[in-house]
Amino acid sequence: MSVVTSSSFNFKSLSPSPTRPFPSWINNGDTSPSLLLLREISASFSRRSANSFLKKVSCAKSPDDYHATLKSLNSRGRFPRKSLGQHYMLNSDINHQLAAAANVKEGDFVLEIGPGTGSLTNVLLNLGATVLAIDKDPHMVDLVRERFAGSDKFKVLQEDFVKSHIRSHMLSILEGSDSALAKVVSNLPFNISTDVVKLLLPMGDIFSEVVLLLQDEAALRLVEPALRTSEYRPINILVNFYSEPEYNFRVPRENFFPQPKVDAAVVTFKLKHPKDYPDVSSTKSFFSLVNSAFNGKRKMLRKSLQHISSSLEIEKALGVAGLPVTSRPEELTLGDFVKLHNVIARE
Ligand SMILES: C[S@@+](CC[C@H](N)C(=O)[O-])C[C@H]1O[C@@H](n2cnc3c(N)ncnc32)[C@H](O)[C@@H]1O
């Protein structure tokens, strides 16, 4: 595995037409666009880290290594955009591990959010999957459309994933295919990860697995929240209601270009089929109860749920559900919320 360190990269320092003088140790004779870009970036490194960086670049063999990624972006005059969370994956081992976590194989249908330059897409297509990719950046869409123009197993849409009609896109792709359920594999922009989780996890009738590269701390909070902590939130109830989550492994920040300020982690959500969801009369009223409960996080449920029933009735329902009358939301597991909801719904 070749890990590139570019710790001092700064989005703003990257100018499309480099005019700053480059340090003499970088070969000024080569004027290829990617080397100019590389020099611009490297100008902000120390001499030692830049030397080791260049050495690693020259050793890299992947078609999506540091140099290839820069070249690909530079061929379109593109620079990573912070607002779009554009941190490109440089380590093809990680892309392979993402695909392996979802057990991607010949004949699978895979949704990829944010293909970027297509490094993960390439791995998915090589495994024999059909890929629907959605990217908000029209330049990245053009780039991957061109890169995979020869493949009839690739389709890309230029859309904001959060606003996309993903259910109808997937149903039209799966229609008439033998493949029962599709998979999601994605190196996500961190800023839309919560929205993506909320959108995709309730789609157990369409997807079997959702494998995401998330911010490490966010991943831990989603998968291993501790009861009675401030990190325990309604999204933890949602994650466990709709899926079996698993934290796979941490991905150090050095594997991305440009390097983010935080590490990432691969998380697998095995989606439950709707027939296996916890038994509640209405998911809408269940999550409405959960959200109301957490609205008054420090409050006891007999107070925060007063708009549903009187304090006395909530106390009674808590008792019937086998819970202390003084319960607070962060003390209840998914199972406890299900019991409480069903007791209240029966009354
Ligand atoms: C972290 S980069 C990952 C790129 C590529 N998958 C890789 O591993 O190198 C995130 C990608 O998501 C795209 N993106 C950002 N916001 C998006 C949104 N709301 N909907 C769809 N794509 C988005 C960015 O343009 C970028 O290509």
UniProtKB/TrEMBL annotation:
Region of interest called Disordered, as start-end residue ranges on this chain: 1-25
UniProt-listed Pfam families:
RrnaAD (PF00398)
| Residues engaged in binding S-adenosyl-L-methionine | H87, M89, G114, D135, D160, N187
Q: What is its EC number?
A: 2.1.1.-
Keyword entries, A-Z: Methyltransferase, RNA-binding, rRNA processing, S-adenosyl-L-methionine, Transferase
Q: Does the keyword Methyltransferase apply?
A: yes
Transmembrane spans: none
Record-linked SMART domains: rADc
CDD domains, from UniProt?
A: AdoMet_MTases
For bias kind Low complexity, which ranges apply? 1-17
Q: InterPro entries under this entry?
A: KsgA/Erm (IPR001737), rRNA_Ade_diMease-like_C (IPR023165), rRNA_Ade_methylase_Trfase_N (IPR020598), rRNA_adenine_dimethylase (IPR011530), SAM-dependent_MTases_sf (IPR029063)
User: GO molecular function, one example?
Assistant: rRNA (adenine-N6,N6-)-dimethyltransferase activity
**Span of domain Ribosomal RNA adenine methylase transferase N-terminal:** 94-273
Keyword flag rRNA processing? yes
Signal peptide from the UniProt entry: none
**Family statement drawn from the similarity comment of this UniProt entry:** Belongs to the class I-like SAM-binding methyltransferase superfamily. rRNA adenine N(6)-methyltransferase family.
Q: Which NCBIfam families match?
A: ksgA (TIGR00755)
Protein name (record): rRNA adenine N(6)-methyltransferase
Q: Which organism is it from?
A: Thlaspi arvense
Q: What is the lineage of its organism?
A: Eukaryota, Viridiplantae, Streptophyta, Embryophyta, Tracheophyta
